[in-house]
Amino acid sequence: MGAVPVWAEDVLITNALIYDGGGGAPFAGSVRVEAGRIAAVAPALSARPGERTRNLGGLALAPGFVDMHSHADGAIFENPTADAAIRQGIATVFVGQDGESNYPLAAFFARLDKQPAALNVASMVGHATLRREAMKPNALRASAPAELVRMGALVEQEMAAGAFGLSTGLEYPDSFSATTEEVVALATVAARSGGFYISHMRDEGNAVFEALAELVEIGSRAKLPVQASHIKLATTPVWHQAALRVPPVIESARLQGVDLKADVYPYTFWQSTLRVIVPDRDYFNAAKVEKAIADNGGPTHLRIVRYEPDAALAGKTLDEIARIWKVTPGAAFMRIVRETEPVGDRRPEEGVIGTSVSEDDLRWFIAAPWTMFCTDGELNGAHPRGAGSFARILGKYVREEKVLPLAAAIYKMTALPASRLKLTDRGRIAPGFHADLVVFDPARVADRATIEAPAAPPVGIEAVMVNGEWVVDGGQVTGKRPGRVLRRPGS
């Protein structure tokens, strides 16, 4: 990954409870960091003359966490210290999600090389990004054969620049019209470069199992691993079905030779556009809209967090907005959609936080051995997931509710995603690996971010090291920016 940065800090870390990322039991020991990498791991290491030491007093030491679905790229240059991410132990963010990536990636990566962030950045190539580039001026339709050829060439270009594969957001406007055949064709191009496919699927609600079947079909036909983004069962008609209906999907994928995985964040509420609750885009069909609102918990469970035509409405529920406008919630939904219709390249903003996931389904996904963890968060977002996800898993779901053991959770935060990305020298505490490390207190770690205070930092994350440099120390952001661009191996 290039020359050793001048800021790399040599240090001997002692008296640590080491969770090495492999999923095994922790052990007491010491770790020596030299030139940005782990030089030695042992039950006890003696300090060399003049060597800087740090005694953890029995605190836990883990590899730096990998956020497998992040939107940190949206503000990485405005907020390069990435406080919301690093304070919860994240050392690497995986961006270019939901079909949206920086374009061209070569330029984005070059800028990050010159203006590094506090953490490492890896990216997918976004399907919607390619559609807008190849189908100008209108990507809100099916692609023509020549346009698909152009998109394939762009996938090759972005994979050569270092993308890890193809991402789609099939529930969103610019990709909604894409056929399965179009996605298979582009995923096949990504597969030729050793990439994988990740998708915000066509439906996360009533038709979620059909959407999962399409995901597996794409993997089978394109011959590449696939991943379901921020997996959830997000409408009441499919609640309480994860344990019953998802295992057959996993078995079907296995029989077809498809490596199916998913990422998940630890909240029963989600953030997206209000439009996604009507997946077939029939936004002005009153009966469908009313059913969609009901399936998502009702208008009190849909909180508008962004509304460009009237910013004063941000923070109010659909029910409250309907009362202000003196209309039904269905009519309020249609007015919001109508007043934020895209015009040319302009995308007027509207956003919603919906509470429509059952706790038992969420717990099942968190514990599943084939899921990894993510924030799906922005660096300055309105959803607490952006600042709290990893601490929430360690505190609420590991320590308090014992949904999974701590060692297993850390494996799903570190070595498993590193393996998915084929990063052979990250995600473990072992000699030769990059020194991405997290110091935390298992007895105290907890999230504090809420909808009312989405940026509130967690507690119990004492220090975070990225590439041998402390970016968080004593729970405080240091301002150091040792992050690197992680390009796909072989690109």
TrEMBL record:
GO-annotated molecular function: N-acetylglucosamine-6-phosphate deacetylase activity
> Which Pfam families does the UniProt record give?
Amidohydro_3
Supply the alphabetized keyword list: Hydrolase
- The domain of life is Bacteria
Q: Tell me, which GO biological process terms does this entry list?
A: N-acetylglucosamine catabolic process
Naturally occurring in which organism (per UniProt): Gloeobacter violaceus (strain ATCC 29082 / PCC 7421)
Where's the Amidohydrolase domain?
53-270, 360-472
Q: What is this protein called?
A: Gll1307 protein
Q: Which family does it belong to?
A: Belongs to the metallo-dependent hydrolases superfamily. NagA family.
